[in-house]
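Problem 12. The chain below contains 196 residues. Write out its predicted structure in token notation.
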Amino acid sequence: DYAKRYKNVINKLLMGTNLNYEITEINEYNDETEKQIESIGGNKTYILDIEVPGKTGLELARNIRKNGDWVSPIIIVTSHDEFRTVGYTAKILMLNFISKTNDLETELFDSLETALEINLANKSLRYTNKGELYNIPYQEILYIEKSLNDNTSNIVTKSHIYNIRRTIKELEEELLTSVDFIKTHRSCIVNLKNVK
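Solution.
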């Protein structure tokens, strides 16, 4: 079972870190798949297998890019090496194309290390909760507002609301170094990239 092998490699890479991560397994690419992907918060790395029922991994990768995610690393895995050229010319900004027949675990581990570096290099709001490190990519943040009753703030993203123990003032000092954020009210910071 390839999905189990992918999970083992992911866990081998991330288990010893303090990074909070979640593995979402999708066994069929269909019309609901993209909605399911959009509902996942945080930095993403895609491992797309071409031999999954429904759309091919390349079609799904193309749709991910078409829907505006040009940042998340995409790794294509297949036993058909002839798709390599298609993968690199399909406008999907693929991180790697891995053959299932040539040292899959080592290739995937190396690619995931690179994907982790890419995700950590992208600007993210980082905070810790119960010893685990969370990253909220700037591009995901719609706005941040002060909570009504305490010294916490709500970070509202496209798919989640995170309540963190930081004041608006602390977040303002961190975020206003980016030209994408503006304080619109004493208790609200807005991401201009997500204003239409």
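Discussion. Helices lie at 2-14, 31-38, 57-66, 84-89, 104-121, 168-175. Students who got a different answer should revisit the alignment rule from Section 12.3.
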